[in-house]
Amino acid sequence: MYDKLWLRYAGGCIEKNMRRVVLSCGKRTNVLNAAIAELKAVFPANAIIIETAERENAPEGQGFSIRNRDGVFTISSQTGAGVLYGVFAFLRLLHIGKIDENFVEFADSPKILWRILNHWDNLDGSIERGYAGKSLWKWDELPKIDQRYLDYARLAASVGVNGSVLNNVNANSVFLTREYLEKAAALANVFRDYNIQVFLSANFAAPINLGGLSTADPLDDAVRSWWREKAAEIYALIPDFGGFVVKADSEGQPGPYVYGRTHADGANVLADALSPYGGIVVWRAFVYGHGETDRAKKAYVDFKSLDRGFRDNAVVQVKNGPIDFQPREPVHPLFGVMEATSLFMEFQIAQEYLGQGNHIVFLAPMWKEIFQFGIRLPKEEISTKQSLDSVGKVLEGKKLSGIAGVSNTGDNEDWCGSLFHSANLFAFGRLSWDWTLDSTDIAKEWAVLTWGKDPIVIDAVVKILTHSWTACVDYMTPLGLNHIMRYEHHYGPDPGCDHGQRADWKPPYYHRADADGLGFDRTRKGSDAVDQYASPLAELFNNIETCPEKYLLWFHHVPWDHVLGSGRTLKDELVFRYRRGVEEAEQLRTWWKQVEGRVPPDRYQAVLDKFDIQVADAREWETVCVAYFMSFTK
Ligand code: GCU
User: Which protein residue's CA is at the shortest distance from atom 1 of ligand 1?
Assistant: First the structure.
C-alpha cells in the first residue's frame, strides 16, 4: 500500500476544546463535499455543521477564513474551492499545533492564480526524468478509475495545486485522439471535485500527425480550423479543460520556425482555439540549439521581441534559470523584461540534476532565492535608486499568474522517490500558493505532518531539510558551475565528458576550463549575457569584484589565482568547497542517525540507505571534479 505522505497527519492531536466545525459556503457543490469528506476522516460526523447560506464578508474566489468563537470553528468562503483549501489549512494548523483554544482567526488566499503540476509522463507509462517508478496514470486501464487518482488529487489540493498537465512536454500526438481524451476526461472527473483542472501537452504537429494535413503552419486556415475543432471536441468531454502546454522548436519538437513563423504566431493559433471556452495556452520558452553561441541568452533573444504579440489567454512558461534546472542558477532574465506577456515560472520538483531519487535535497530555499531575486526596475520609480522588484512580485502582477512544477511523482509506494522527496512536492504547493512563506516554516510543517511531534525527530528533519540544498551546491556545482553532470542521464560528475558523445552541449561547453582559468565569460567582453539583466544588475554581474560568488563562474572566466572573498585563490576555493560539500552531506546523515529508534525502523532504514548513497556520491563528485579541474592548473 502506498504512503499517505503529509496526509498521515503524524502530528496527531485533536484540540479538546473544539466543539464544532462549521463549514460555510454559498452553495453545496462537489468540491464542498470533498472538503466535508476530509473533515469527516478526522472528526465525528456530529461535530460538523454545513451552512450553505451566503455569509457576509465570506472570502471570495479561492480564499477562505477560519474563525474560532468559543470552540466553534467556522471555515468560510463563497466557493467550494475556498472551503476545501480552508479545510486543508485547518487540518494542517491543527495537527502542527497552531490551532489551540487561543486561536482567533486566520484568513488566506493564493497570491498566484495557477499552481500546476507538470507530469512528464509518456504513453507507455514511463516518466521522462522520473525517479519514483512508473506513471500514476494507467493509460491501458483508463477510463477505469483507480483509487490512487483520488489520493493524488487530495495530496495536490491539500497544498493548493489547481492544475495538472497529464503528459510529457515532449508530447505524443496520440494524447489528442478521441480515445485518449476520454481517458483524460475520466481523470478530470476525479480531479474536478478537488478543484484541479486538467491540461494536456500538445504536439504542435498534431494537425499533420492526426489530422492528415500537409502543414502545421499556424497561419494556415485549415490548421486553424483543425485546432478549433479539436478544442470543441475536448470541451465537449472536459468542460473545465485548462488548456494546452506546448514545447515548440526545442530539442527536436516541432514548432512554428519551420514555416517562418514566430512563437507568438504558434501560441496564438492555439489560444484562439481555446479562448471561447476560457482555456489558456502555456507556451514554453525553453529554447536553444538554433546556432547561438551562448545557450543562456537564447530564450531572451527569441522571446523579448514578441512581448505584446501574445493573446491574452496565452502565457509564456519560463524555467527558473537560463540553462536548465541546475543546482543553482541566476534567475532567467526574461522575468525582467516581458512587460505585457503573462509569465509562468517553471520549477522542476523532480531532481533531474540534483541527485534524482537518491539525494535528499530540499528545494524550498532554492525556490525562495528565485522568488526573492530582484529582477525588474519598479515601473513607478524608474529614476530612483530603489531596489528592484522581486520575481515573486513580477509573477503576482501578471494578468494570468502561474507557477508550474515538473512533478516528482510516480507509482512507488513513497510517491516521490524517497520518504524525504515528498517534502519538495509539499513545498512546491505551499510556495506556489504563497511565495512569501518561509522555507524553514514549510520544512517544519512537513516534518510534523510526516514524522510526528517528537522534538528530536523534528529538529533533525528540519536541520536536514534546511541544510541540504547548500550541501548539494557545494559538492556538485560550487561558485556558479553548472551542467557538469554525466551527459545523457545527468546523474554523477563528468566535467571532462570524454566519452565520445556528441560534441555540442558537453560539460566543457559550460565550464570552459583551460590553463588560464575557469568559467563562462558572459561579461561585456564575452557573450554579454549580463546585459540581458536590468541595470544595476548588469553592472554588478559584469564586474568580477562585485559579481556574487555564487554566480562567479556563471558570468566570468576567472583566473586560477584570482583571490576570492575568503582570501583563497579560485583554485584553493574550489578544493575547499568540494570538501565542505562532502562534510555537509556527512552531516546530513549524522543528523538522521539521531532519530534511530524514534521513527519506525523500516522508515529509518529507507532514509539511511539514501544518505549512504548521497555521501558516497558527494565523495565521488569531490574526487572527480577536483582531479579534473586541478589538472588545468599545473
Ligand atoms: C531538460 C530535460 C529533458 C526535457 C527538457 C525540457 O533538458 O533533460 O528531458 O525534455 O529539459 O524541459 O523540455
Answer: 324
